[in-house]
């Protein structure tokens, strides 16, 4: 969940000081973007993937501090819970054989971490939520030992003024109350980053919004939570409700939430998102950052506490030039390394194609419809029906097969991705659609054969994951 801070508790003066700095940095960023004094380099790819540490009984193993200390890898870090870890990539130019290189990088990180986990008598697992997870695992004793998480917990609960209420109505109905933000740690994702040219950053952002529904369905991998069969991608309602707090004062229970699909497209500039951050969301982590406005340290920290499913990020090139990245947070982690890179391939290709279309024509889908499509896809996965550009409702599976994979292919071609590279990974998606088996559908199929045995399912899931095969080829025996 981002950058560490020095304290777990802050006084009122700290909030006032931070907000003044945030106002100034937001104005400075507006000027920087208005004068186009940001990086215009061609798209660059990157990713973050979250994973679970589990023991021999397939239960969550809260040992990430020891795991990371002994792993000694700068690309690995702690997540909210002691049983979660995250692996980061290094940036890769989005052309040529980008996906083979991403695959090699992720496989290398994963193999190293998996071998290390075995030495500690545990395993690592990539999935949307651990099937064996119990609500009792989500306690403050299992929160990672970082000030950031304790401060966020305090501020979010103070803003809410009441326990977190979880209410997800899917195949079954899950209702429960929880006293802290540890519910969020029940979700693990694959976050896809695209560094984009400033001039079209808002078009890339809008393209990611439209692409969110097909990606939610393709990548669905969280059908179960605490023993209940819910949505195909139950991470979506879980994360939104686990940190359900809104904006200032009377807007606290209003339509703008800190975890959401967003409020609208970026109509003229990506700056609209950062301005909304200032105008609508109170500061949660008022760290005393002794830095110049040009470093945008306060703005970046504040932006890291607002979790749109598509989130613009501000960073810097090697020469110190500011750049914009779009972070796509929709896909669940897993099911396999190969599936993960295939998911990235279809996202990069589809968003490039949609972005190109929107630079020439108007936005082809109302924002409200893109948002509705997203939640339909999260709930029903590949069985969802959506309304697309022609205004007609159609099965999302058919749309993916008849139009969206072709758009992805054309998008990757326009990026300069090698045909052999793009076809290899898009073929994984084609096979997934042909067999109608993503991570969520595999889990549902397994549980239909072995009702209630989440431990057995997790063992088989882990075995299949380690086989290196895509989920479309997984077995349930």
Q: Which labels suit this protein?
A:
alpha+beta, Creatine Kinase, Chain A, domain 2, about 475 residues, 16 strands, 14 helices, eight-stranded antiparallel sheet
Total helical elements: 14
Question: Beta fraction of the residues?
Answer: 5-15%
Rg from Cα: 21 Å
Number of strands: 16
User: CATH topology, which one?
Assistant: Creatine Kinase, Chain A, domain 2
Unreliable stretches, pLDDT < 50, 5 or more residues? none
Helical content, roughly?
Answer: 40-55%
The end-to-end span amounts to: 36 Å
Largest sheet: 8 strands, antiparallel
Query: So what's the overall shape?
Result: globular
CATH class: Alpha Beta
CATH architecture: 2-Layer Sandwich
Total domain count: 1
Determine the mean pLDDT.
Answer: 94
Overall SS class: alpha+beta
What is the succession of H and E elements? HEHEEEHEHEEEHEEHEHHEEEHHEEHHHH
């Amino acid at each position: 969940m981002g950058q560490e801070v020095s304290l777990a508790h802050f006084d009122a003066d700290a909030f006032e000081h931070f907000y003044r700095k945030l106002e100034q940095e937001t104005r400075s960023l507006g000027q920087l973007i208005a004068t186009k004094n940001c990086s215009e380099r061609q798209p660059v790819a990157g990713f973050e993937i979250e994973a679970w540490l589990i023991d021999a009984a397939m239960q969550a193993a809260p040992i990430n501090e020891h795991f990371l200390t002994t792993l000694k890898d700068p690309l690995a870090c702690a997540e909210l819970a002691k049983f979660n870890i995250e692996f980061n990539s290094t940036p890769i130019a989005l052309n040529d054989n980008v996906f083979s290189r991403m695959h090699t990088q992720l496989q290398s990180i994963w193999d190293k971490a998996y071998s290390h986990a075995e030495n500690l008598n545990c395993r690592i697992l990539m999935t949307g939520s651990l099937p064996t997870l119990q609500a009792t695992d989500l306690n403050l004793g299992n929160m990672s030992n970082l000030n950031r998480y304790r401060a966020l917990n305090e501020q979010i609960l103070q803003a809410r003024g009441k326990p977190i209420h979880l209410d997800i109505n899917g195949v079954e109905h899950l209702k429960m109350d929880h006293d802290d933000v540890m519910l969020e740690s029940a979700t693990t994702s694959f976050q896809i980053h695209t560094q984009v040219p400033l001039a079209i950053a808002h078009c890339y952002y809008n393209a990611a919004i439209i692409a969110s529904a097909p990606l939610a369905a393709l990548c669905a991998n969280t059908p179960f939570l605490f023993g209940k069969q819910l949505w195909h991608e139950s991470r979506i309602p879980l994360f939104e409700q686990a940190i359900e707090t809104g904006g200032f004062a009377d807007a606290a229970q209003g339509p703008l939430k800190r975890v959401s699909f967003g409020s609208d497209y970026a109509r003229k500039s990506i700056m609209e998102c950062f301005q909304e951050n200032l105008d609508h969301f109170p500061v949660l982590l008022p760290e005393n950052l002794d830095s110049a406005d040009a470093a945008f340290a306060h703005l970046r920290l504040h932006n890291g506490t607002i979790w749109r499913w598509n989130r613009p990020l501000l960073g810097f090139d090697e020469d110190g030039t500011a750049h914009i990245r779009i972070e796509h947070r929709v896909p669940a982690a897993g099911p396999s390394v190969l599936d993960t890179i295939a998911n990235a391939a279809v996202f990069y290709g589809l968003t490039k194609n949609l972005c190109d279309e929107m630079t020439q024509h108007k936005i082809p889908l109302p924002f409200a419809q893109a948002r509705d499509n997203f939640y339909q896809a999260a709930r029903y996965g590949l069985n969802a029906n959506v309304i697309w550009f022609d205004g007609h409702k159609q099965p999302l599976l058919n749309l993916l097969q008849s139009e969206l994979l072709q758009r992805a292919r054309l998008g990757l071609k326009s990026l300069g991705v090698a045909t052999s590279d793009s076809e290899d990974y898009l073929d994984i998606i084609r096979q997934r659609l042909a067999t109608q088996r993503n991570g969520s559908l595999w889990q549902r199929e397994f549980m239909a054969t072995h009702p209630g045995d989440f431990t057995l399912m997790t063992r088989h899931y882990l075995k299949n994951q380690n086989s290196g095969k895509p989920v479309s080829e997984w077995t349930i025996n």
